[in-house]
Specification:
- By secondary structure, this protein is mainly alpha-helical.
- The protein folds into 3 domains: 64 residues, Orthogonal Bundle (Fumarase C, Chain B, domain 1); 255 residues, Fumarase/aspartase (Central domain) (Fumarase C, Chain A, domain 2), CATH 1.20.200; 75 residues, Orthogonal Bundle (Ribonucleotide Reductase Protein R1, domain 1).
- Helix content is 63%, strand content 4%.
- Helix 3 crosses helix 7, helix 7 packs parallel to helix 14 and helix 12 packs antiparallel against helix 14.
Length: 473
């Protein structure tokens, strides 16, 4: 019998991210948390032997998932199912597994650990894409091209500067990711409603030992705990992390959409392999399938953003369980999808194809209109009347536009101006150098790379050359 297969795992995300959110990693982490708790409790004088600790250490990864499933069918409780499965292979330690803890001790502490590691994977992928876009921007820092506002031709920019817009969105996302990694906190040892009552009872009312237990436990797992919680860590953290992932999705979607537009104009394309098929029907097509996939996956992540927000808003009093199923779905899927998005983004950034001749042709089709302000000012400097010159240019421009739009002809605005006596003192060709219209575009590319991209390269030097062999594009 065949069952539903999650395409995020089978088709899109890396093995690294898939394994992180897989059952082996999750339940091994649960066992490590139970071990850390037992060690901390032993250090503070509870009757837990070294033999029991060693037994727990020896069975962190040998999880019998079939046995755990049998227990869950019987007990209707996933945490207790795994307590029993762990106890089966650690019979001497069975009495002290999960001592004083509630279910959220393992579920929430494990989730916090996985969230931080998942954010680290995303952080590294962001740094890699920023590096590749920086290289591309540098290469094309001076290549003039049409800019667009309202999706209409506007004052020219350069291909490299446009890439800097894409990179800077990710630079902002990277800064937010780094902030989130620093601020991932864990539940610690809080008990059933956050009061630590069960641990206080274990230590016979010794408040200082209860405080010390949490400090020792957190040191062992390498995380800081929230100052105060209900039964769970604040679901606000999940909401903040999904806001971040949605922001990355927004940046990637904007890039991919821009590239799809540029591919339509035949100015740029994503990589297209020698044997790649663009369409099953139209053999000549070179569809921007990677960019389209980015948009599809990014839209999915953006749609997930509201679930953690609603979950955080509806955690009644100390806790309600309607967060559980939602989080099991949303958190892994959001990370798997963003992982896939950034893999695609890096692949595209490493192989972007640029067609300078097409870019030049498209620029020259609009440049006469854009040069009119320079021509106007030059004619005024030669003694012309600005208002009269402005009106002449307006009439010539409208006539030229009509030929282009209604007859499909060439833009003849420059010839019209050359033949107008009012502009006979102006060297019109000298006013048409494309580099005169791009402002500080090359310099802005240099500044962004030097001030932002290079520091990122230095911080993540060790990961920028790592080859991720298991990725799929």
């Amino acid at each position: 019998m065949q069952y539903y297969e999650n395409p995020l795992i089978s088709r899109y995300a890396s093995r690294l991210m898939s394994q992180l959110w897989g059952p082996q990693r999750k339940f091994s982490t649960w066992r490590k948390l139970w071990l850390a708790l037992a060690e901390a409790e032993a250090e503070l004088g509870l009757p837990i032997t070294q033999e029991q600790i060693e037994e727990l250490q020896n069975h962190l990864d040998d999880i019998d998932f079939n046995k755990a499933a049998e227990y869950e069918t019987k007990l209707r409780h996933d945490v207790m199912a795994h307590v029993h499965a762990y106890g089966d292979v650690c019979p001497n330690a069975r009495p002290i597994i999960h001592l004083g803890a509630t279910s959220c001790f393992v579920t929430d502490n494990a989730d916090a650990i996985l969230l931080r590691e998942a954010l680290t994977i995303i952080r590294n992928r962001l740094a890699a894409v920023i590096d590749r876009l920086g290289r591309f921007a540098w290469k094309y820092r001076e290549l003039p091209c049409l800019a667009f506002t309202h999706l209409q031709p506007a004052q020219p920019t350069t291909v490299g500067r446009r890439a800097c817009l894409w990179a800077y969105d990710l630079i902002l996302d990277l800064a937010e990711t780094e902030h989130r990694i620093r601020n991932v906190k864990t539940l610690g040892n809080k008990g059933t409603t956050g009061t630590q009552a069960s641990f206080l009872e274990l230590f016979n009312g010794n408040h200082e030992k209860v405080r010390k237990l949490e400090r020792i436990f957190c040191e062992k797992i390498g995380m800081e705990s929230f100052a105060i919680t209900g039964q769970t860590y604040p679901r606000k953290m999940d909401s903040q992390i999904l806001d971040l992932l949605s922001g990355i999705a927004q940046s990637a979607h904007k890039f991919a959409t821009d590239l799809r537009i540029l591919a339509h104009r035949k100015e740029m394309e994503e990589p297209f392999e020698a044997d790649q098929i663009g369409s099953s029907a139209m053999a000549y097509k070179r569809n921007p399938m990677r960019s389209e996939r980015i948009c599809s996956l990014a839209r999915f992540v953006m749609s997930l953003q509201t679930s953690p927000a609603m979950t955080a808003a509806t955690q009644w009093l100390e806790r309600t369980l309607d967060d559980s199923a939602n989080r099991r779905l949303v958190l892994p899927q959001a990370f798997l999808a963003i992982d896939a998005v950034l893999i695609l983004y890096q692949n595209i950034a490493e192989g972007l194809a640029v067609y300078p001749k097409v870019i030049e042709k498209n620029l020259w089709s609009e440049l006469p209109f854009m040069a009119t302000e320079n021509i106007l000012m030059a004619a005024v400097e030669q003694g012309g009347d600005r208002q009269d010159l402005h009106e002449r240019i307006r009439q010539h421009a409208q006539a030229a536009a009509a030929i282009v739009k209604t007859k499909g002809g060439e833009n003849d605005l420059l010839n019209r101006l050359r033949n107008d006596p009012a502009f006979n003192k102006v060297n019109i060709d000298a006013e048409l150098e494309p580099s005169a219209f791009i402002g500080r575009s090359p310099e802005q590319v240099d500044e962004l790379i030097n001030e932002y991209v290079e520091p990122i390269r230095q911080r993540y030097e060790d990961i920028l050359t790592v080859v991720d062999a298991d990725v799929r594009v």
